[in-house]
Amino acid sequence: MVADVRAYRRYQADHSRLPCPVTALGWTDDHEVPPALLSGWDQYADTDTRLLKGSHWSFLSFPDELREVLAGEHSRAADAAASAGTSDDQS
């Protein structure tokens, strides 16, 4: 545990901005991670914040709204990669 504390004390976070956008997902009734905390991502990247109806553990049931957001984000990322002349396809 002493080594953990030393590592924690030496750690310096890199606060540079990410080279890609971030989608911050939150839940309207989340008391563990309140929606107001999602705005913290703005300091690290261009951020699209989405609030989905539900509580902290709602993701476990993989609701349709979450599925749609993730599918949309994947599609946008694939389109961006294709436009940049890259591909996620490793074959």
Describe the secondary-structure layout.
Layout: H1 2-10, E1 22-27, E2 47-52, H2 64-83
Parallel strand pairs: 1-2
Report a brief summary of the structure.
With 91 residues, the protein is of the alpha+beta class. Helices cover 32% and strands 13% of the residues.
Polypeptide structure, described:
The radius of gyration is 17 Å and the shape is extended. It contains two helices and two strands, in the order αββα. The chain has helices at residues 2-10, 64-83; strands spanning 22-27, 47-52. The chain has one domain. The mean pLDDT is 89. A two-stranded parallel ribbon has the order 1-2. Helix content is 32%, strand content 13%.
- Element order: H for helix, E for strand: HEEH
In percent, how much strand structure appears in the residues? 5-15%
Q: How confident overall, as mean pLDDT?
A: 89
Structure summary, number of beta strands:
2
Distance between the termini: 44 Å
Number of helices: 2
The major β-sheet equals: 2 strands, parallel
The class by helix and strand makeup works out as alpha+beta
Strand order of the largest sheet: 1-2
- Please give the domain count: 1
What's the Cα radius of gyration? 17 Å
Helix content: 25-40%
Principal-axes shape call? extended
